[in-house]
Amino acid sequence: PLVSDKHARIIIIGGGGTMGSSTALHLARRGYTNIQVLDVWESPSNDSAGNDINKIAGADSIGLFGGVSDEAWEAWVTDPIFRPYAHNVGKLDLTVGSNDRAAHLNKKYEKLRGLGRTDVDWMDSADAIKRKAPHLEQADITGWQGLWCANGGWVAARQALSAVAVECRRLGVKCASGESGTFRTLVLDSSGRCTGVEVADGTIWEGDLIVLAAGAWSPVLVDLEGQCESKAWIYAHIQLTPEESQAWKGIPTMYNDLYGFFMEPQPGTGLLKLCNEFPGYTHMALARPFPLQKDIRMSVPRSHTRHPTDTIPDESREDIKQLIDKCLPHLRGRPLINQGMCWCTDTEDANWLLCEHPKLPGLVLATGDSGHTFKMLPVVGSEVADLIEDKLSDTKRHLWRWRPGAGDPNGTGEGGPRPKDLSDVEGWRSETP
Ligand code: FAD
Q: Model ipTM?
């Protein structure tokens, strides 16, 4: 084990975000008594990629993350902390034409069927899709096909993060935010072991074990030797009328790898979130991750909270309009509101980086979310706790090991073109004239 007992002082950097708050929850549930969360913002952190009205989740991502994904949806619908935020409306994972992705989805369908799963179906035509999703009646989706999964849909992300934070506090987790929660540097003893975190106001938080779960900021704070590359993804919303919102209550979640995704409008507000699908944008700048002695050029997230007038690149707006044109033509021309960029960090193989830093003993890395980790909120922290307690299987240990040298040359974390840099696209930096 990485700590001697349950009274060890464990500090979680980024504990107001997805992986960090899940880690705090699971450690507290296992009886750890001395957990200190540090974050720039109080949970749910304004900078967390999970601070969003909704995220896709479901029981169809078999085998992902060493099989952990199989347990995630189960936890969403059974764990009392998460259950209120899971919307089991069904989920469509679609593609256009007979490409590699269609083959991949079909293989997944066959595999799930082979496991005796009756909640999945293969959608081989636009008509089949429209039978599951009548709200796509007017959609121009000829040639689309893909996987239907009845167990899944979406989760109310921000509310779930808040619920985790409340439960953590109830279980005795302590939290510091603002200047006293903002990581500045690590403190090492004479043997090179991490013994604490110095934060922006100069406070040193001493710990027996430090967990770095700072999402897209992780590689900027601590040198991860190019294993994680942070990128922005895009969202915008349409305000539906109460009547429209009511009519779309319970619609299944729709994802298409070319056009993007959307799900049920947010109950209460009628906000319909729309995301395009693309390899993400980098934001190259100079930074000096600990313990480097000079600046390096890397992709550095640009916090939407600190740059609230940032909008989205023109080309992303066009992509989102294309999604509307294709799938929701009756909403064409509606204003796109609450546009923004949110930041994740990709590994080359889209698996987490979840291990002790080999050069900084006492520092556990819980990052490399690769853009698909919100659905894992109920379970990811249990894996971090297993790592700390030396209970991870060899398979998982291998999957999430320290693996420098490759970085993320393919951009998306799962192959595909190199991402563009924000400096090469127009329209997003509305605060500059
Ligand atoms: P975060 O949740 O971002 O947490 C990082 C934390 O670190 C934040 O709280 C931040 O404040 C803190 N931090 C930063 N700097 C410091 C510092 N100096 N000191 C202290 N703390 C610091 N996933 C899904 O599963 N399903 C989806 O449908 C889905 N859709 C998405 C749509 C968009 C537009 C985006 C951008 C992402 C989406 N994701 C989705 C991905 C998912 O949101 C992320 O994988 C996940 O939230 C990342 O979790 P994390 O804990 O690594 O980072």
A: 0.99
